[in-house]
């Protein structure tokens, strides 16, 4: 039976193990689900929506349909790079918006045409934060190059994989037709094919149909 001291200790331990209680702690906890699988670094910043990131990554993975470790790595790179590009664009807009809160010359404040005043404020804000914006644009350029490079690499890998699969299926169809013509049983796995017999039979039917269309 637990003593009074043990009971008190258990209660104190339970209080320390119930998870984050503050808003900041809960936010950090929510970020655990959106860490980079390889580096463990947090992808989503505390002021960003983890749910939006996860939905974006899910949609991107559906479109890219990566297979294998390398394609998955490239898909993750594409996801994170695009996310950072959108963050950079938002930051640029925020920097320009600061101009509306900073002291302005009277000639700008007194402009009656709203569109002209807004344009002038953005020009002034750009000049005041020129170095910050320049560094931001350099970062965007590097991210864009990384994004297009990863997209090109995953396209090449997937084209290579699909072409190899098509060639293997063609060989499987040839073997299937040979066995069929000679009334032999064809077991794809015995020849090292990963396709099922129904898949090969359907491919053979499509091949025969295309051949008839050419006649």
Q: List the helices and strands in order.
A: HHHHHHHH
Secondary-structure content class: mainly alpha
* Overall average pLDDT: 80
Helix residue percentage? over 70%
Q: How many distinct beta strands?
A: 0
Kindly report how far apart the N and C termini lie. 90 Å
Shape: elongated
**Rg of Cα set:** 30 Å
Q: Which band does the percent of strand residues land in?
A: under 5%
| Individual helix count | 8
Low-confidence stretches: 1-20, 26-33, 36-40
Largest sheet: none
Q: What do these coordinates show?
A:
This protein is mainly α and 215 residues long. Helices cover 73% and strands 0% of the residues. The protein has helices spanning 4-16, 23-30, 50-64, 68-98, 106-109, 114-128, 130-181, 197-214. α4 (68-98) runs antiparallel to α7 (130-181). The longest helix is centred in the last third of the chain and has 52 residues, at 130-181. The protein is elongated. It starts with a helix and ends with a helix. The model is unreliable at 1-20, 26-33 and 36-40 (pLDDT under 50).
